[in-house]
Structures are given as C-alpha cells and as structure tokens.
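Q: Joint fold for the lines below.
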Amino acid sequence: MTEPAAHSAHWAAQKERGSFTLMWLTAFGLRRLGRRPMTPVLYVVVFYFFVFGRRARRNVRQYQNYLAAWSGRPELRATLRSVFGQFMAFGDSLLDRLEVWRGTLPLRDVQLHDPSGMRARLLKSTHGGRGEILVGTHLGNLDVCRALADLGEQVPLNVLVHTSQVAHFNRLQSAAGDHQLRLLQVSEMDAALMLELSQRLDRGEWLAIAGDRVPLHDGRRVTVDFLGHPAPFPQGPWLLAGLLRCPVNLMFCLKIDGRYQIHLEPFMDAPAWDRSQREAIIRNWVQRYADRLAQKCLLAPRQWFNFHAYWQTLETSDPTGEADAHPRRVAP
Amino acid sequence: MNMETAVTGHALEQEIAQLIIDTLNLEHLSATDIPIDQPLFGDGLGLDSVDALELALALQKRYAIRIESDVKEARRHFATIASLAAFVEAQRAACAG
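A: Joint structure:
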C-alpha cells in the first residue's frame, strides 16, 4: 500500500517506510497463510489508508470525475463508495502481485490479446533480431505480465523501475519468493542510461518502461491532454524509440470480471523524427498514447493506480491552496 | 606531431563533421562550414542533449568504439569536432589494443 499513503506531494518523494512494513507483513502473511486468511487483513490495511490518506482520496476523486466528464458517463462520477472501491482494487492488485511473485496465481487463466504475435517475437529475440520497447502503464497490474514469460525460459526483458521503489520491491519480492525479474534501476533517463539501453536493444533484449509516470528529477516531460485536462508525461520512452528507430508496443494488463487480460498492441513500427520538429513529433506520440490510455481507463475505471496528484501542474490555481503545485521541481 | 598524423587527424575531423551533418540532417551545412573548434552545443552549432545521444550512437556504430557512459567526460569529449576527433582516435587505439 505505498501509493495511497500519499502524505507528501510527489509519489517518488513519499515516505514509504511505514507502509512498507505493512506491505511486508502482508507479503509474509500471504506466503505463510495463503490468500484467504489475508484478505480481511488487507481490508483493514486498505481502510486505514483510505481514512488517513486525505490527499490520495482527493486525487482518486479528481481522476474519477475527470474520467466521467471526459467520457460523458455520469455513472463514473466519484462517490465515497467509488473512491473506496479504487483503494480496494489497489489492495486486491497487491494480493495478486504477491501471488504472481510466489508463482501461485494461475497464469493459465490470464487471457492474452496479442493480435500481432508480439509474445512470439519476444521469445524469439534472443536468437537474433533487435529488441523492442514495451510501454506499460500504472493502469492495471503489470506484474501479471509475467505470464508472458511463462514458458520456463529466461525472457530477455528488462523492466525499468524508478530507483526509490527498487530496494523495497527487491526486498518484498524475496519475501514473497520471487527472484527472476530483471529490474533496472533508473533515477533519470540520462545519456548514460540511453546508451546502455541502446546496447541492450541491439543485443535483442526488450525493454519495458512505464509511459505514464514522470520521475522526480527528470526534466524531460511533455504535457498533453489526458481525460480532458493537461497532464505531464515522461518523454523518456519516446526519445529512446526515436533515437533508436525502435518499434514501440503498448502493454496493458487489466482485471476484468475477476480475470486478468493482457493486451499487447503495436504502437509504432519505425518511429522517426525530423530534427527540427522533434518536440512536436514526440508530443504527438505522447498524445496518441494518452488517448489510448484514456480508452483503456474505461475498460477498468477503478484500476488507475496513480494515487498522487496526476494533473498537479494545473493546481497552481487550486482554490484549496495545497502546497503541491510544483513538487517535481523540488531540488534533491 | 609529424606531418602524417596531422593529415590523418584532419581527415578524421572532416569525416566527423560529415557524420554530424548526416546524422542530424543538417543539410544546409557542408563539412567545411563547421570550424573544428566551434562549440557543438549551446551557442555554437546549437545542438542539444538529444542530438548528443544521436551523435554518440552514430559514432559507436561508425567507428566500432564504445562510449563510456560517464556524462561529465562525455561532455568534454563532445565539446567540439576537434575534441571528438581526438576522442575517437584514442578510443580506436584503445580498442585495437
């Protein structure tokens, strides 16, 4: 439950220690006891964060109201129940995540929608061929995409994770019994990292990276319309794609009617830019991504697991005067 | 520096200037238009950090060298065409053993 404990403004700057302990206990309990006895514990933990996470509640409410207005579906408007529902969905996704790490979530039950045969390309890419980029999202539960690798062989997939989360994740994962994921720690999409990633792609490795979260100290962002309001998105995945002329695919993993569905969609075959119009081209790609993301939000409206202020650049005019107008500019 | 290496160095500088032009689509320029000691970034040629990456990737490919990912060092090597040529020369020597 790291994210709902949003006491400070930016997700990367949040104090996660207390919530981490709770999560570790949940992981430990899950491993020892299994899911069923842990479920009531989870309810209590989620309720705790719901009650005390005032800012997270406000952010969820904002998201739900934006989604309702953007889609013209008033039934999606935020109520106390629907906001709590989103907190519970996050708790539920955590249980699923821990089960994936333990290897006890039956991955056979995961439906794969992969019309372009992407999974086959991924599994083949160690035997020659160039890597591709998978842009993921915090909508839904990306950990379940481990199902992609469920062939018993090492899949050449690198997952970029923000540094502040990695240490906790690694500890949690070993608590839950998983040691396989290849995580790359990232604090900033800088030149050094780009060069390293380009070499991995050339070796046929794939790269999974979130497309919807702006790292704290990363100046490369672009603001596009998302659910009817301007929101900052990272440029990193798209810069990489353009620089390396590397195909980009989108990856969504949503729980629909109690079952996970993985959607793999080709997004760009051969991204290229004209140098003089680079900014505009990247903005164009990101806007297309944001539009696609918004469509997917309608498939699983409560699985938007960004509990920080997503549209916070707008909040300079926020009448509540919260002090988080530009938290991303805060010096380290 | 004897005459021969000076000529080779000059040829390499021209080559790198051309590589910059090709990589970054600076079609309005020719290799001789870029003074070898003109700053490539900022006020000089006006390249930015994404251009630098594009250039680094092209150099790696062209000269089969490995550009280490130390950003401060890279900034120094990428300052001008002259410094880039010297860097490529040194890297090639190092890679050749």
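Q: Anything notable?
A: Chain A has one domain: 11-297. The CA atoms of residues 106 and 274 of chain A lie 46 Å apart.
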